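Field reference: sequence -> structure
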Amino acid sequence: MKTFTRTIQPNSYPISLTEIRDYLRLDHNIDLSETQFLIESAVSIAEEYTRRAFTTVTYSCLSDFMGNCFELRYGPIQSIESISATLNDGSVTQISPDEYYLTRATLNGQVVFKDFKCPDDVREFEGWEVVYKCGYKVLPGALCQALKLICAHNFEFREDKNTLPPEASRILDAYKIVTL
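Structure field:
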């Protein structure tokens, strides 16, 4: 089993409060927190739908098993920060970057081990941890437009919060990472 946790949250979002206020033609004395919530929820909906991080964030993935290749959940991958194994005695062994390489970095990424010899006494439950940084440095314009559409939809249909309008899903489909 794999568990993904966002360990470092984004320090900014790909669209600003001013952009959304102008796009929605809102009066500038409307509560900032509601507009910020629209942006945060739109980013969350779009990221889950596409399996891509829209801003630079760091994830930790805990896993029970590590084969010769290991698929990550969110992309695009910027870097692998660390890979470690927790042994049964509680000690942690760092895996050298010379022991693996990254493929499919523009998608969700896959760590492939070279001639790696797995330690025999790795803890069975969440014995492996991969920490990686992912996200767009500059979000493509089409994805920014999809975020604006989601914000507009969720503003218009407040009682139906956190839904994905069909116009936005058509844009996001082109960026969606599908795994089998």
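Note: The mean pLDDT is 89.
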